[in-house]
């Protein structure tokens, strides 16, 4: 899909996880930074407004894990992101042309890897707050395995893996 977006000269591509946690009606607010701030990527973040994610039903253990992993990632990558673990991402075509997404993993960490590559390529990342809604959907994410995978991304970044792509 991302390659198709480049080939058809799409200006902006939206990747929205289909688990019902992310509000599609927030899309106009998330597209705006591409014109006013010359953003290359925009992330809808559940973690920008204090404990709003908890009020939206995010399980406490996921909230704590998100905060902890994000702190580690911010230290490693030198960014000041509110989170790296959102499933609401928008990309300008120029970002997709710069990021070698076909060389990235086919896992739940694909979004984080694109953020890492944006950092490596000097692209501008903008975050906007979004509401959180956790219903009774079933998550297929294995939290311990996911956390270890995120830490392996940090280690790979530190070893220069993403700089070599």
UniProtKB/TrEMBL annotation:
InterPro entries the record matches: Glyco_trans_2-like, Glycosyltransferase_2, Nucleotide-diphossugar_trans
Chain ranges of the Glycosyltransferase 2-like domain: 8-99
Domain of life according to the entry: Bacteria
Signal sequence, renumbered to the chain: none
Protein name: Glycosyltransferase 2-like domain-containing protein
Lineage start: Bacteria, Pseudomonadati, Nitrospinota/Tectimicrobiota group, Candidatus Tectimicrobiota, Candidatus Entotheonellia
């Amino acid at each position: 899909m991302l390659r198709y977006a480049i080939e058809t000269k799409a200006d902006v591509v939206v990747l929205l996880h289909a688990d019902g946690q992310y509000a599609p009606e927030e899309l106009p607010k998330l597209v705006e930074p591409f014109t006013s701030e010359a953003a290359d990527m925009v992330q809808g973040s559940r973690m920008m407004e204090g404990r709003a994610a908890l009020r939206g039903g995010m399980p406490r253990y996921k909230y704590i894990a998100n905060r902890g992993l994000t702190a580690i990632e911010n230290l490693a990558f030198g960014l000041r992101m509110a989170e790296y673990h959102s499933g609401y991402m928008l990309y300008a075509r120029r970002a997709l042309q710069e990021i070698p997404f076909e060389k990235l993993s086919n896992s739940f960490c694909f979004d984080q890897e694109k953020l890492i590559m944006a950092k490596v390529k000097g692209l501008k990342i903008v975050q906007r707050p979004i509401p959180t809604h956790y219903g009774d959907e079933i998550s297929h994410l294995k939290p311990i395995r996911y956390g270890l995978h995120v830490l392996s991304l940090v280690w790979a970044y530190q070893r220069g893996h993403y700089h070599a792509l």
